[in-house]
Structures are given as structure tokens and as C-alpha cells.
Design goal:
The protein is of the alpha+beta class. The chain has two domains: about 35 residues; about 120 residues, Sandwich (Immunoglobulin-like). The longest helix has 24 residues. The radius of gyration is 24 Å and the shape is elongated.
Length: about 160
């Protein structure tokens, strides 16, 4: 009889452990889905901007307005920083990371700004991908917030 009770006891805790650990073991993204807060916006460059890069002297001015606030359920969120990536949609050129972890100045602010030189030889249409890193729900979520199309015109200095 003791053996039967022992088996029931073990089965009960195995079932309890299985049902409580199932969400951890599941690959279903809907079980853990959390919405990010509102994303910031790319102020500059605007889509359709043209950058003149003569002899590597061109400059891409990136200005990003991050966010800071509270969700309807009372959870605070804020933009921690951004990554800036130059992407060639034709795949003729590999993606070039222009900035990684660019932060607001001052750190408590939301405005992020920087100037970047396009890589030598870059010419044509590109997407300037902005990845926002946002602190919300006690974790950092990263997502693509913008990808304005820009045109880089390259050539020698005359």
C-alpha cells in the first residue's frame, strides 16, 4: 500500500510540474507575446533624401525622436538607443552598420542624433534601417522602427 501511495504522490507532482512548466517548454510565441510600447520616429533623413558623397566627404545626418511614457497598464517604457544600418535592397553590397547602441544625450532624454560618412563606393538607393532598443516590462525589446529610402551619389572630388 505504501508503494501505491508513493507512486500516486510522484505522479501527482509530475503532473503538477508538467502543467506548470508547459508554458516554459512551449515554442508558441502567443504564450509570451508582449506588445512593445510606441516606437520613436526617424526625423532625418526623410524618405527620398539624396546624399552627395564626393571623395568620401559626404554626410548622413540621422536624427531620431525616441519615446518615453507609460502604457495603459502603468508600465513605464523608454527608448534606450538605436542601431543604424545601411542596407542595399539589391544585395549588391553587404549591409553596413553605421552605429550600434547610439544613445540619447543626455541619457534621460529621447532625442538621438549623429553624422555618418557613407562607405566608399556606396552609390545608388539604400534603406537606412533604424533598430530601436526600448526598455519595457523590465527587459529590452529591439525592433525595426524605420527604414527610409535614401540615394547616395558618389564620385571623385573635382
Amino acid at each position: 500500500m505504501t508503494s501505491f501511495r508513493h507512486v500516486l504522490f510522484v505522479l501527482f507532482f509530475m503532473l503538477l510540474g508538467f502543467t506548470h512548466c508547459l508554458p516554459v517548454l512551449s515554442n508558441s510565441p502567443t504564450m509570451f507575446a508582449r506588445a512593445a510600447g510606441p516606437s520613436g520616429s526617424c526625423v532625418s533623413p526623410s524618405g527620398g533624401s539624396s546624399i552627395l558623397n564626393l571623395g568620401g566627404t559626404g554626410s548622413i545626418h540621422v536624427e531620431y525622436q525616441g519615446v518615453q511614457g507609460t502604457t495603459p497598464d502603468g508600465t513605464p517604457y523608454h527608448t534606450m538607443g538605436i542601431d543604424v544600418i545601411l542596407h542595399d535592397p539589391t544585395s549588391a553590397m553587404a549591409d553596413v552598420t553605421l552605429a550600434q547602441g547610439l544613445k540619447p544625450n543626455p541619457p534621460s532624454g529621447t532625442s538621438i542624433s549623429g553624422y555618418f560618412t557613407p562607405p566608399l563606393g556606396a552609390s545608388g538607393s539604400f534603406n537606412l534601417i533604424i533598430i530601436e532598443h526600448q526598455f519595457i516590462y523590465n527587459e529590452v525589446l529591439s525592433f525595426q522602427a524605420a527604414a527610409p529610402q535614401i540615394t547616395i551619389q558618389a564620385g571623385p572630388i573635382q
